[in-house]
Amino acid sequence: MVCKLTSSGLNLCNCLNTEDSSQSKNTKIDNRSILINKNVDLIDYSTRYSRYGWGIDVRATYSHLPCQPFWTWLTGKYPKQLEPRRPIETILAPWQLILQLTWSWALILISLLIGAFVYKNSDIGLLIKIICSLFLFVIVTNRTRGLLHTFHYTNHGASIKNLRLAKFLGKWFMSIPIMHLTWDEYHKIHAGDHHATTYLCTDADPDQKFMKDHGFYSGMPEYLFWRYLVFAPFHPKAIWEHIYFRFLHNFIIPNRSEIISRFAFWTSLLTIVTLTNTIDIFVIYYLIPLFLITQYSSWLQHITEHLWFAVRPNDVPLFVFMSSLTWGRFLGRPYPKGTNGIKGIAYKIQWWAKILIIDIPIKLFSFMQDLPSHDYHHRSPRINFWSISRERAAMEGRPSKYGPMTETWGLLESLLIVRDQVCYGKGDAFGVWEWARNQEKRRNN
Ligand SMILES: [Zn+2]
Ligand SMILES: [Zn+2]
After folding, report:
1. Measuring CA to CA, which residue among 146, 155, 212, 149 is closest to residue 186?
2. Which domain of life is it from (predicted)?
3. 233 and 382 both lie in a single domain
């Protein structure tokens, strides 16, 4: 697939936009049903699970719980299958995008104000200061990365229709204040390179280069995989390269007018915080999360974002292979039902404890916004992030040139899948390549 870059900066990744709903719009199904396509072929498009997973639709075990929007936010998975919509139907109105930005910046600002209060108040003990600061770091990291992901969708043309307004909001509210790349540069390396079907998980993919820069390679020993997973972003070289990369792409590489805008913004901001004597607050509660903590937050999700270094077998169709390079990364585990008495109560306490201790921190720290549905973003990059979990669920189990969908529950399951590929060359964790081979055999018989 070739992604063309128009002069207006619009992404024309047509091939990736063909996970359209029209092919099966009137087919009501459940996730595990066997579907009948137009050729009366029996093809099973039901969701696939890895051998490390639960083998069931975990989200369905949450269906009796109150407050379903909360569980959708936390798990990343939408609870029911509605009619699919076309990407254009998911686009936001400008006020909705502005609301999203206001929400993010308001949370950042409130965090800075609370940070100032905690930092300067001598009545607050050191331990409380540290705990509060860690929490504020997570919130600021969550929202600055949230802005980056909002920029990502806006850059795909998946936020609002008005391109001029999209570029303006992208530049001044989602790029310059978080020292992100310029609109055009990001479009080139992300929509152009990362989303190119034949580039994904190759050396031409900038995201795979990022893995290589952190020491990962195909066939690496397992102990190195786990060691780099934990320590690579803390290496002084990685920290320096990250800061240097941002500096280059903000003040050296962009065109003159971009450099002037970025220089003017940052010198004004630094002047204000210096004159108001708040430079210490600004450094601790904004720059440290932005430059240091983001690195690790982003790293944890990046490692499991794709099946790095996977090579397409000749007998696996291109689009099926491409979609097998990513999967739904949901957070949670089956709700314990059916056990009564003390044992049942103990299971439920354990389940709730894992929600509080594992899922909520991982969601806030690393898997914000649309990241659990990154697989569906590669199938249909013009779906807006407000709708992506709903649209992903709508297409689950339906016929698609990308093959069946796949999903994991919990960070560890995804890590084991990536480990199997990177260290041992076992790429078909969900049996999707085998599924494609079987379809080919059926067609030939
Ligand atoms: Zn994208
Ligand atoms: Zn990706």
Report:
1. 155
2. Bacteria
3. no
Going from the Cα of 194 to the center of ligand 2, the distance in angstroms, rounded, reads 6
Q: Are residues 75 and 97 in the same domain?
A: no
With respect to residue 61, please indicate whether it lies within any of the assigned structural domains.
yes
- Ligand 2 centre to CA of 21 (Å) is 22
Cα 49 to ligand 1 centroid, rounded to whole Å: 24
Range of the domain at 272: 90-303
Asked whether residue 95 falls in the same domain as residue 35, the answer is no
Task: Kindly state whether residue 314 falls inside one of the protein's structural domains.
Answer: no
Could you say which ligand is closest to the alpha carbon of residue 186?
A: 1
If we measure between CA atoms, which residue out of 158, 29, 47, 85 comes closest to residue 391? 85
Residue 313 lies inside a defined structural domain of this protein: no
Among the listed residues 238, 242, 241, the one whose alpha carbon sits nearest the alpha carbon of residue 215: 238
Say which ligand is closest to the CA of 153: 1
Q: 248: alpha, beta or left, given left = phi > 0 and alpha = psi -120 to 50? A: alpha
- Ligand with smallest separation from the Cα of 190: 1
User: How many angstroms does the Cα of residue 216 sit away from the middle of ligand 2?
Assistant: 17
Reported confidence tier of residue 41, pLDDT bands at 50, 70, 90: low
- For residue range 187-231, list pLDDT tens digits in order: 999 999 999 988 999 999 999 999 999 999 999 999 999 999 999
Q: Taking the complete model, does pTM exceed 0.85, yes or no? A: yes
Tally of helices (H runs) and strands (E runs) in the chain: 19, 5
Token code pair at residue 78: 């939408």
The token pair that represents 111 in the structure block: 């965090």
**174 and 227 within one domain:** yes
pLDDT above 70 for 35: no
Please indicate, yes or no, whether residues 266 and 387 belong to a single structural domain of this protein: no
Interval between CA 377 and ligand 1 midpoint (Å):
6
What total number of domains does the chain contain?
2
pLDDT above 90 covers a percentage of the chain that reads 84
Question: Do 268 and 133 have their domain in common?
Answer: yes
CA distance 442 to 445: 5
